[in-house]
Write a structure and sequence with these properties.
Elements lengths: L1 E12 L2 E12 L3 E5 L6 H8 L7 E6 L2 E2 L4 H7 E4 L11 H11 L4 H14 L15 H13 L5 E5 L7 H18 L2 E6 L2 H5 L3 E6 L2 E6 L1 H8 L2 E6 L3 H12 L10 E5 L2 H11 L6 E5 L3 H9 L10 H14 L1
Parallel strand pairs: 3-8, 3-9, 6-7, 7-8
Antiparallel strand pairs: 1-2, 1-4, 4-5, 9-10, 11-12, 11-13
Helix pairs in contact: 4-5, 8-11
């Protein structure tokens, strides 16, 4: 059963499409991911599905309700964790949740039990009376997830939920996301530009310049890339590239200062390569295809933010927040 159905959804800003007539479905209980770089249309898509933004054309149903004709029912069906912080840090954790409960009409006699349930799920029950301003970035994200779950939504939207967090906190946050699926059978729709997060999704849609350019399970997408990935470095890369192309008929990518080829059975190909090549090789790397390879194969480039350092990611996040 599909809980989200999207048909030719389009959003145009100043004659430029941010989302370009995309269509896809999300099954009940699925973790569905939008993978793409900044500006690809990920957040715009979530904001349209959450009825924050109206589409220019097309339609979608969320939990069976039209995002155009029945916005209130859509909003009651979803929880939403925004990309940017949205908690009131002058309030305590419980006060933030109480305010959310009033907005969503959670009965007063049920609030305490639900608050305890969602805060225990994210290991924050013992901090319920603490001011949010005393929380770390990871704790705030966990509280935002708890807030999004308070009214028992059918679908939880997570827009870049771990951006700006350190790797350890990101890993812990993903433990809670996977726990939600396991224990609550909740449908989770998330956006990310992190490859490891996309790997944890049941299916992913790769979105680029507003278009969905691929959609399948992570494993199926990686199989479509081809064989094993071999990266070679040497003193005379141009000579090495020519020999690889002429001798073996291989397509060689040299966009990042090394040579990258795709072959079947890389473990058996490498010994043959070393025995037959006339050009010296200083280093070699053999690995299986990744989602980064899928994105590179489809779009011709890497996801820029994926190669940023942690410091650069934080600076980029702060820069983007400053524009809002």
């Amino acid at each position: 059963m599909n809980v989200i159905e999207v048909k030719e959804l389009k959003k145009v800003y100043k004659d430029k499409p941010a989302v370009n007539e995309i269509s896809f479905d999300v099954a009940e209980g699925e973790i569905f991911g939008f993978l793409g770089p900044n500006g690809a249309g990920k957040s715009t898509s979530i904001n349209i599905l959450a009825t924050i933004l109206p589409p220019t054309s097309g339609d979608a149903t969320v939990n069976g309700f039209s995002i155009i004709e029945d916005r209130d029912s859509v909003r009651k069906s979803i929880g939403l964790v925004f990309q940017d912080p949205s908690l009131d840090d002058r309030l305590t954790a419980s006060e933030n949740l109480r305010f959310h409960a009033k907005l969503y009409g959670v009965p007063k006699n049920l609030f305490t039990d639900r608050m305890k349930e969602v805060l225990e799920l994210v290991d924050l029950w013992d901090r319920k009376d603490d001011f949010v301003r005393t929380f770390s970035g990871g704790m705030r994200r966990r509280l935002e997830i708890a807030r999004g779950l308070l009214h028992y939504p059918k679908i939880l939207f997570l827009d870049e939920p771990t951006i700006g967090l350190d790797p350890q906190t990101r890993a812990h946050l993903w433990e809670y996301v996977l726990r939600l699926k396991r224990e609550k059978m909740m449908t989770i729709f998330m956006t990310t530009h992190y490859m490891d997060e996309a790997e944890a999704c049941d299916r992913i849609a790769i979105i680029d310049h507003g278009d969905i350019v691929a959609l399948d399970t992570p494993e199926a997408l990686k199989k479509e890339v081809g064989g094993d990935i071999i990266t070679l470095k040497g003193d005379k890369l141009s000579d090495l590239k020519i020999e690889l192309e002429h001798r073996y008929g291989l397509k060689v990518d040299n966009s990042d200062g090394s040579l990258r080829i795709e072959v079947e059975n890389g473990e058996t190909f490498l010994p043959k390569l070393f025995n037959e090549l006339d050009v010296s090789i200083s280093s070699v790397e053999l690995r299986k295809p990744t989602l980064d390879d899928v994105f590179l194969s489809i779009t011709g480039r890497n996801i820029r933010a994926e190669t940023m350092s942690g410091k650069d990611r934080t600076q980029e996040h702060m820069r983007r927040r400053g524009r809002h």
